[in-house]
Amino acid sequence: ALRSRWSTGHSFGKQHVVTALYQLGLCRRYDRSPSHAQLISALIDRLMQFSPRDLSTDEVTRVLWAFAILKDVSNNTNAHRFATDLGNLVLERYHDYTPAQMASLVGSLSRLMDSPAEDELVGRITTKFSDYALGNGSLPRFPPEELQTWTDFL
After folding, report:
1. φ, ψ for residue 76, nearest 5 deg
2. Contact (CB, 8 A) for 80 and 112
3. Overall pTM surpassing 0.90 (yes/no)
4. Smaller CB count within 10 Å for the chain: N or C?
5. 36 pLDDT band (50/70/90 cuts)?
């Protein structure tokens, strides 16, 4: 029973998938380890079993960062669609992110998006968060040191 449970992947939950993708991204970035295309593909397939809405802000940030770092993701249409869905979710929930998270998100999304419509999505996220973070003409919503991360990114 244990073997069949693991072979279907249903015990490998959302947090496990996000962590594994993030760790593979770290390995790729710092170690330049060889590609693990089959593992990455399996993790992406498992990630597709979850709704983007089920991911926390930190998980969204980590998934998009990993997708942007892992070269094997660029040819995966499911991953691209999931990244776009996450981008649309970020556009709705921009107020849930810190300036550091948003800088990472927008940087990752800009590397992942190909079409003019997708570039427009990144632009809309950037504009909405900038307006929000800077207080829409009133008091900024974050302390100056946190805003500095965002303004440095811009």
Report:
1. -100, 110
2. yes
3. no
4. N
5. confident
Residue for token digits 């802000």?
57
Report whether 86 contacts 55 (CB < 8 A). Answer: yes
Instruction: Compute CA 16 distance to the chain's CA centroid, rounded to the nearest angstrom.
Output: 15
3-state SS, the chain, equals CHHHHHHHCCCCCHHHHHHHHHHHHHHHHHHCCCCCHHHHHHHHHHHCCCCHHHCCHHHHHHHHHHHHHCHHHCCCHHHHHHHHHHHHHHHHCHHHCCHHHHHHHHHHHHHHCCCHHHHHHHHHHHHHHHHHHCCCCCCCCCCHHHHHHHHHHC
Q: What is the pLDDT of residues 41-76, one digit of tens each?
A: 999 999 999 999 999 999 999 999 999 999 778 889
Residue whose tokens read 């991911």: 55
Residue type, 84: T
Joined together, the tokens standing for residue 64 give: 């998009």
**Which residues make Cβ contacts (< 8 Å) with residue 136, sequence separation at least 6?**
none
